[in-house]
Structures
1.
Amino acid sequence: MKNKLSGILSSMSKFFNRFFLSASIKKKLAYTFLLSSSLYLAASVIAAYSANGMLSNMNSVKKTGDKSITVTEIGRLINAKDIRIADYITFLNEEDLREYRTLRKELNKELNHLMSYSNRENKDLLHSVVKNNKLIDELFIKEVAPAVIRLDEEIYTESRKEISRLRNQNNKLLTEFRAGTLEDQNRIMNDMRDTVFKSLVLVIITAAAALIISFVLVHFVSEYIKKRVHSILNITDAVSRGELNHALRPPEPYEDELGKLSNSIGSMVLKLRELVTGINRGHIL
């Protein structure tokens, strides 16, 4: 395991020397900029993904809110239609009958609309509501209304009881539907909070990593350049003082501008040494 780790570190070191230290100063700065930009871009992508998830969850919350409003409206229409049935039985008024037809049409429209974007479980509840609603209409049209006209109190009284039972059952089903919708809404809100928290943590970590890595790379490059420039300045200062015997560093293995400059100055100093040495020997002879 230790040998394997050493091999990995050695490979990374070779890769670093080949693609970074040997690169030109312009490329070093470009690599630093690209790496930092990539990390900041990753943070931006995470933030955008989080925003998209929040938008999707907000749309889901809006849909569940619309469902609750529609369910409330359906409940109102069911009860209003039942009141019109009771009023028609009591007063035998054509206006109540017309109002009943209008309410029946609106109720069917709202039920179909709610059915179109409900999940399977909610659709099962709605099917039961629709079925009960149809039974109420059939009882009123086929039994209650004719019995009221004939003044057959026994029939319309029994039918009225059955209509009330179906109405209560529908209200119970709608209450269950509304509770399920509220549960879905709470679940979506919890998911949204979890998504926001996780995305925020990822964005902070990525941004912090980008900041730290950028600082380390900039510091490394600046120190690298500073150290190399100081080394070259030491040699040129020694040459300016005539100290040609000043110890030179071995030839630079790097191929960047500073490495080439250092090697060129080293070659120049060596030739000056040879020249001065030759002049001194000629003078002695």
2.
Amino acid sequence: MKILVLTQKSAVSYYIINHLPEEHECHVLCEGSGSFELLIRKIKYRFRKFGVLKGLIEIAIMLIELPFILKENRKVSEYLTQRLKDQHFRKNITEYTIKSVNSKQTVQIANELKPALILVLGTRIIDKTTIEGLNKVTTNIFNWHSGITPLYRGVQSEFYCILNNEVEMAGSTLHYLDTGIDSGKPVMQRTIQLSEVEKNEKNNYLFLKYKNVLLFKEMITAFIQSLEKGQVLKEEIKTSGSKLYSTPTVKDYKRYYSGIK
């Protein structure tokens, strides 16, 4: 089976992709981080939601908090890099580099490769035009979300599970890719299972992120095996409600750190 992975370079993507079954031909399309683009999108969102005056106040707060948020993000990256150890893709993986997953190159490369499976791991939001183009290549396009949807959509699901006293809901979802944010139909969902020793770390969101990566490695292996048999696994966790989470604020982090002391 030929697999195309859309991702950004990170310890997580290196680890998961390196652990895909080696008997399959794997190609990786890596986009740039898009940090500036994300910042602009957040600024525009605040103007749309709050109007000009309140929007400016919200943007000022966001910029004041930015150094702390960036420091916390570096902590996550360093922790996962130390735990997962992978620092590059294995030698038999073909790698392509593009500026954005939403560039025309993405669909062009997919058309040339004609993969049986397209897997999305931690890219920016993929736009409608790109999704429509990819769907002409294959309808087997799935996104990994490190949370149980639709209850935990968006970012930092493990963090918010702890804040909400719902650590038992920390887990992963593999779902069809659509134009929404983690809103595609789930095909596999599993929660993190902690050993008795690991339960001492249940309120450590960094550790839960690490466990979620290990969980998804198992999930995607099982999923690929099912596709080889012409099947699509269906493991869905029934939840009530739906919520989209955004980047935690300094106030959220203070609640978190005060709760784990």
3.
Amino acid sequence: MTINLVWLKRDFRVDDHAPLYYSQQNNRPTLFVYVIEPDYWQLPDTSARQFEFIAQSLHSYTKTLEKRGGYLCVRTGDVVELFSKIHQKYPINTLYCHQETGNDWTFSRDTRVFNWCRSQQISINQYPQQAVFRGKLNRDHWQHKAADWLNSPALSAPSKINSLLNHHSGLALLDDYLGNDKFTAKAMQLGGLLAANNTLESFFNHRINQYLFGISSPLTSVTSSSRLSPYICYGVLSLKQVLKQAISLQVNKRQKAGFIARLHWHSHFV
């Protein structure tokens, strides 16, 4: 028996999730894996605050995954070493993942993982979750390509998941932060789908009315900005779904246009 492996990185949702969706288009059981990488959490641009947000988002993700019959495996260590151990016990047919737009460390790690997959004749299916396209691309061409991607249909979550596991595994590892800092916040934004949806709803119902007037000031941005950045950054919300909901809003046209423009700029500046 061979399996599918869905590798989670910054994509903690089931809706509009290409790796999840396409992994369920065959009869192979699927293993969902998140890896806590000790070396990553020693980098200067990582923090306990980020890890706490990710942990909260993953706990939320397990609930939505479990409703569909899926279960999450959390492990600590080097991704290539862990995938190699999995491959020895459950031969991996295909790796499914999103393209991560991170830093040089994550890019190098992805390169190592994909090279290992090729050496093991494991197929790699990698999907964008932002309008970010690697390689040489003319800016004008990017605009057309980005528009096509952003306007493409969002993928629905499978109603039933063919899961390799019948229980979650390793969730307790999310309680232990492996970094060497204590950069937390007393009133930080909470991770997870419920917090994301509440933030989205409060912005569309209230804060968007002052969006363009307040986002440039640190004093007013707290009550006028969307506050959606962490949820989009870590894939709790789909960029395409946020955009589609924004387009359907019945609010001030200028405020609406300003927010939609910045959703497009998000991928451009990334």
